[in-house]
Each structure stands twice: as structure tokens, then as C-alpha cells.
Amino acid sequence: MVNISQGYKPSIGAVLTRLKSPWTIIAFVPFLVAILDPTNLGAVVIFAVKAFIGTLPFIVFAVFLIAYLKAAGAEAMIAEAFKGRETRMIFLAALFGGLAPFCSCEVIPFIAGLLALGAPLSAVMAFWLSSPLIDPPTLLITAGALGWPFAIGKAMSAVALGLFGGFAIKLAMKRGFLTNPLREISGGGGCGCGPSPFNQKPVWQFLSEEPRRKVFRKEFLQNAFFLIKWLMLAYTLEALLVTYVPADLIAKVVGGDGVAPIVIAAFVGMPAYLNGYVAPPLLAGLMEQGMTAGAAMSFMIAGSVSSIPAMAAVWSLVKRPVFASYLILGVSGAILSGILFQIAV
């Protein structure tokens, strides 16, 4: 029999894990401001709450949309992009990369299945580069935080980056580079997300199917909790940023004219990856402090390309030269996107 009189003593690791929760930070920040700078407590809290409420309609629609796409099995649509001629595949892979509602582990068996069936690396690279940058919920959250021009610019940059990478890989392979690029791959998923959606078909009218209704409810609740948690954290951090970080400091590093701030933002964005839901509110704060629109676009794209799930998918399936090509194409594409967006606005 277990002696419960001694009580449960959680490990230090378990305690640290709980403390790293976004909810802990959300609660701790106002508490810390109340102790250290009580005169600004109201300003910080009101800023964060107003920003969150302003984004709430986008959150609701994004949660509904991603739940609907998952329940309908919309991932199967993406497989259609990898059929036909190589040039057609590159265009469709870059375009559809932003539509796939994959979780991070579903990307790997999906791409493994494509490669096993002979899909060209150029089209797969187009998908890899565009997929982490945008999806329907990210588009809506970005529009809510930074406005529709920025959100549309990011979506266009995602497609352009996919095309850029896809055709660059196609050219490199024609010149004899990146030959035999793939590691040994297996056909199974084994990540706990269920079978690969590659051989499935979407069912848009799924209300009569209880399993799909269950998927919808599950995805709706999970994504609502996920988005609320991360966006509350993002707007709390944005409130701190706007209140306490001097505007002239931001302007000196990533403000002003020229290419230098855009290049700096890309190289800062890659190691400082923030997920696509946290980044827009923080960038909104940075732009209020003097960050240029081009630098913000460069930062966001470089950070998305360098996300752990995106890099893990590439690393697990291809050899190191292809992985290096992915990173080079990602950061160079982020810089080019920032320059073009800066010119456009």
C-alpha cells in the first residue's frame, strides 16, 4: 500500500514545466508590474485586454475554419497538387502549402508518402517553404493584429517563396547538384496523429457522420484553447513592449531606410522563432516603436521557416545539403520578401 501521509512531492522538472506555461506568464506579468511599477498597471492591462478583444472575431472564425477543414479531411486536397508535370506541381504545391491544416507531426508522413510515390523534390521543397508561413487561421490572426495589407502580403510572400525554392531546386538538380537527396524513408506515420491523409478524400458535408462531428468538436475546443492561450500571452508581451522598450532603440536596430534593417530582422527572426499566432501582436508593437514594415515581414517569414516542426520535417527526410538549401532559400527569400514589401507599402 502507498503511504499517502508523506504527501506527493513533484519533481523540480515538473514544477519548472508548469511554471513555463503561458498561463503562468500571463498571470505573473501584471503581478510583477503591480509590484515594480504600479502606476502603469492599468495601462498595461487595458492595452492587453483591448487588443485581445479586438482580435476576438478573427479568433472565433479561425477556430471554426480550422475545425471544419480538419473534420472534412481537407488535407487530402493537397495531394492533388503533386500530380502531373513538374512545373505544374511546383506552382500548385506553393499555392496549396498555405491551405493545409496539418499538425506538425502530420507533415512528415504526408511528405514521406509523396516522396515514396516519386513526387519531385522541387515540388516538395515548394510545399515545405510555403506551408509554415501561412494557413487560414494565421492569415486571420495576422490581419487582426497587423491589418489586411500585411496579411495579404505575407500570403503572397509564402507562395512566392515556395515558387522561388521549388524552381531553384529544380535548376540545381538539372545542373547535377543535390543528386540522391533523400534519406531512407518508411511509409508509416507512427506519430499518434492517425494515418497519413494522402489517400483520403475530403467530405465537405459531414454533419451526418458522427466520427467527423467528434473531430469537429475536438478540433474546435483544442484550437480555441490554443489560440486564446497564445494570443493572451502575445498581447501581454506587446503591452510590456510598448510601455517599457524605448522607441528610439527599436528604430536604431530595425528602423530607417535601406536593406540593412531587413537583413538584420531576417537573421534575428530565425533563432528567435515565435509561432504564427504570437508573432503578429509582437510585431505590431515593434512597428509602433519604429520597426519598418519590410523588416517586420522579413522577421516573420524567417521565423516561420525556422520553426522546429518545419525544420524537423525537412531534416528527417533529406540529406544535409538539401537541409542547408532549405535554410538558405528560407532566409534569402525572407530578405527578398521584406525588400519587396517595403517598396510596395
From TrEMBL:
Organism domain of life: Bacteria
Bilayer-spanning residue ranges: 41-69, 90-119, 139-169, 224-247, 259-279, 291-317, 323-344
One Pfam family recorded for the sequence: ArsP_1
Source organism per UniProt: Pseudohalocynthiibacter aestuariivivens
InterPro entries: DUF318, UPF0718
Bilayer disposition of the protein: Multi-pass membrane protein
Keywords noted in UniProt: Cell membrane, Membrane, Transmembrane, Transmembrane helix
Protein name: Permease
Localization per Swiss-Prot or TrEMBL: Cell membrane
Similarity-based family: Belongs to the UPF0718 family.
